[in-house]
Write a structure and sequence with these properties.
By secondary structure, this protein is mainly alpha-helical. Helix content is 74%, strand content 0%. The longest helix has 32 residues. The protein starts with 5 loop residues before the first helix and ends with a helix. The relative contact order is 0.10.
C-alpha cells in the first residue's frame, strides 16, 4: 500500500522538482537576424533599409573617386560633379526634350510588343497545337541579340525613330511571349476542367477563367520586361540619333565628358525605377488579391 503521509508527499514533490526535465527554462523571444529566411520587413523598415542602401552606394562611389589615382580622377567623377552635370543638362541643354523622346521610344515599343505578345502567349498557353506550331520559332528568336539587327533596321528604315522603336520592340517582344506562355500554363488545369464540365465554351473558359487567373502574373512579367526595354535604350539610340538620352551620351563620349555620361546613366536608372513603381501601383489597384497572397 502506498504511503500518502504529508511528509512523504512533500519529499516526493521535492525530488520531482529537482529533475532537469521538469525544471522550466525562462522563455526568451528569439532574436531577429538580419539575414532571416523569408522575412517580410515592415513598410517603415523597408524604407529605412532602402535609404541606407542608397547611402551605401553613394559612399562606395565617393570612395572609388578618391581611391582612383589623381591623374585619372576625371574618369571617375565624384557624386557632386555628376549631380551638377545633371542639373546643367536640364537647365542649359534642353535635356527634358531628350528624356521625353527616350520615354516615347521605350513606351511606344513596349506597348506594341505587349499588344502582340500577351494575346499570342495566352493563345499558345490555351491551345497545345498552336504552341507546338509557333513555340520553336519564337523560342529561337530569343537567342538572337537585338543589337545584331541594327544594320538591317538601318537599311529598312534609315536613321529614323522607326528603326529605334523596332529595335526596342525586338528586344522585348519574344521574351515577353515566352513569359506570358509560362504564366498561362501555370493556371491550374482543374480550373479549366471544372469550367468545361459546367458547360463553358472555349471562348468563355479562356476569357472568364484563364485570363483572369493568369493576368496578375502576366502583368508582373510585363513589369519585368519593360525594364529590359530601358536597358536596350542606349543601343537603340547609338546610331544616327539626333536626340534622346543615348544620343546625349554618345556626344559626351566624343569629348570625354564622363560626368555627363554618368549623369545620363543615372537619369535612365531614375526613369526605370519610376516606371517600376508605376507598374507596382497599377498592379495593386488592378489585382489587390495577388499582392495580399505574397
Amino acid at each position: 500500500m502506498q504511503n500518502f503521509e504529508p511528509q512523504a508527499l512533500e519529499r516526493e514533490g521535492a525530488l520531482v522538482s529537482k529533475r532537469p526535465e521538469m525544471q522550466g527554462a525562462p522563455f526568451e523571444i528569439p532574436r531577429e537576424r538580419f539575414l532571416e529566411l523569408r522575412l517580410q520587413p515592415s513598410a517603415s523598415k523597408t524604407l529605412l533599409l532602402g535609404v541606407l542602401g542608397g547611402l551605401l552606394f553613394l559612399g562606395v562611389w565617393e570612395a572609388a573617386h578618391y581611391a582612383t589615382p589623381e591623374h585619372s580622377r576625371k574618369f571617375m567623377p565624384p557624386v557632386s560633379d555628376v549631380l551638377g552635370a545633371l542639373y546643367t543638362l536640364f537647365a542649359e541643354r534642353n535635356f527634358r526634350h531628350d528624356m521625353l523622346v527616350s520615354c516615347y521610344r521605350v513606351f511606344a515599343s513596349f506597348t506594341m510588343a505587349s499588344l502582340i505578345a500577351v494575346p499570342l502567349g495566352i493563345a499558345m498557353g490555351c491551345f497545345g497545337n498552336l504552341k507546338a506550331l509557333l513555340n520553336p520559332i519564337l523560342s529561337g528568336w530569343r537567342y538572337l541579340p537585338a543589337a545584331s539587327f541594327i544594320p538591317l533596321l538601318l537599311v529598312w528604315f534609315g536613321p529614323t525613330d522607326s528603326a529605334k522603336i523596332a529595335l526596342l520592340f525586338i528586344g522585348v517582344m519574344f521574351f515577353l511571349v515566352t513569359l506570358v506562355l509560362d504564366n498561362t500554363l501555370a493556371v491550374p488545369k482543374e480550373f479549366v476542367e471544372a469550367s468545361l464540365t459546367m458547360g463553358g465554351s472555349r471562348t468563355e473558359v479562356v476569357s472568364r477563367v484563364v485570363v483572369p487567373a493568369a493576368m496578375p502574373a502576366i502583368f508582373d512579367s510585363m513589369r519585368n520586361m519593360i525594364a529590359v526595354g530601358w536597358t536596350y535604350l542606349v543601343i537603340a539610340e547609338i546610331v544616327g540619333a539626333q536626340d534622346g538620352i543615348g544620343a546625349v551620351m554618345m556626344r559626351a563620349g566624343c569629348f570625354l565628358n564622363v560626368d555627363v555620361i554618368m549623369a545620363a546613366i543615372l537619369m535612365i536608372g531614375i526613369l526605370g525605377v519610376t516606371t517600376d513603381l508605376l507598374f507596382r501601383g497599377a498592379q495593386r489597384l488592378l489585382f489587390p488579391w495577388s499582392i495580399e497572397r505574397r
